[in-house]
Amino acid sequence: MNTKDFATLKAYEEAYTSSNLALTNLIASGSVDHSVELKRVQFETFPHIVERLESVCDVLGISKREFLERALVDALNSTWSTFTETYQRLTGHPYDGELQPGKEAV
Question: Is the whole model's pTM more than 0.70, yes or no?
Answer without folding.
Answer: no
